[in-house]
Amino acid sequence: NRDITYHFDKNLLTKFLKDKVAMPSGVSCLEGEVVDCEKDDDGNVVNVITNKGIGVNSDLYIDCTGEKSSLLGQHMGVKFKSYDKYLINNKYLSIHIPYNNKKEQICNFTNNVAIDNGWIQFIPLWDRIEVNYYYSDKFTTKEQAILEFKDYISNEFDYLVTSPKIQNYGELKQGMYNKSWVKNVVGIGKALGYTEPLLSTDILHPKESFIKILAILSLKDGKYNQLDRKRYNGEILDYITLTSYYTSLFYYASEREDSLYWKHNTQNLKIKSKHNNTTYDKFFKIPNLETFVD
Prior knowledge:
The strands form 5 sheets. A 5-stranded antiparallel beta sheet has the order 7-8-9-6-10, covered by helices on one side. It has a 3-stranded antiparallel beta sheet with strand order 1-2-3, with no helix packed on it. A 3-stranded mixed beta sheet has the order 4-13-12. Helix 4 (201-219) packs antiparallel against helix 5 (226-252). With 294 residues, the protein is an alpha+beta fold. The protein has helices at residues 10-22, 102-105, 142-156, 201-219, 226-252, 260-267, 281-284, and strands at 34-39, 45-50, 55-56, 61-63, 80-82, 91-97, 111-115, 118-124, 129-135, 166-171, 175-177, 181-182, 185-187, 193-194, 274-275, 278-279. A hairpin with a 5-residue loop joins strand 1 and strand 2 (45-50). It has 7 helices and 16 strands.
């Protein structure tokens, strides 16, 4: 067996799955943004209202509304827990770079490079290279970050004639909601939580969530109870928490101390060694140096 990786344009992939897979299989597609919802006396959602005035009735709602978390966060009142004590990056910048020699430059893996106030990610797509800079505004300003980012890009891609344009700027809300499945609403992906894509773990979270949901529903002909919700919440939240701790290890164990940003990451991160009676000491244990001596 060979491990194979693919990079997809998410917008084209979404359109392909909708037009070629979902709708031909009988799935109805109603486009719109969630603006409100109606609940019954037990707190279950019975109707989701969109900005086009369309009501959507369902037995179970999967919240895939991204960082808005329109159902789980806004209407089910679940509290959000931030990771900012051990994953401090809270801003990002994005630049699109054209290929100069596509045959030589294109590849099927991302490349991450640490710089003074964060890290840069190179994502080769079919028609461009997407480059993102993740940083913390506790150690640099937006203006300084843009200068640092553009300077690095200009040196890396010396064939660019003009200064690269910032395509996107935004906030990183790292953390997750305390529950994923509340009543008849399940938060998936960024609607549940987010960890910076240093290891691309957020690609894995929705897959694990769907597998577990389908396993529960398939056993009881689409029905579920409070025990199913409790078990699912425990498994998913522990899984996501563990991956966030694992991501933080790449800062926690770094040897860089050449800027205030890196000194903070190597000296001052606050990481719990236990979560729900599960110890994570093995992730932060300093190896015995004698094992590296021949």
